[in-house]
Amino acid sequence: MNDHPTLKEKPLLADIQKYIHKTNKYRKHRTDVLYCMLMLCEETGELAKAVRKHIGGKLDVAKPATGGAAEEAADVLWLLIAVCNELGIDLEQALRAKEEKNKVRIWK
């Protein structure tokens, strides 16, 4: 039996992308881009609910609670990276390229 993939100490973003790719394969998770995108939207909503709870917003106490904000943020990151992996996006390179554009924007 293969061992579960491990994430090295102090990983780079590229290491995290590789880990998520390998782990999704190991766990036999569904990774098609549409499914991952739908899951990303769902998890983003759960993060919003956790933030609302954190700031003292009212919640329906009859509904089951989601995980805390940290757990939900991790789910959002995982699924964002899964989408990027399926689209062949190097997320670090994409972030750097986008920031170069943002540096010359006029922010008001």
Please, could you describe this protein's structure?
This protein has 108 residues and is mostly helical. It is built from four helices and no strands. It has helices at 13-26, 33-54, 69-87, 91-103.
- The overall average pLDDT, rounded, is 93
Radius of gyration: 17 Å
Shape: globular
Q: What proportion of the residues form beta strands (DSSP E)?
A: under 5%
Short description:
This protein has four helices and no strands.
Keywords:
108 residues, single chain, globular, mainly alpha, 63% helix
Present the secondary structure layout.
Elements: H1 13-26, H2 33-54, H3 69-87, H4 91-103
Helix pairs in contact: 1-3, 2-3
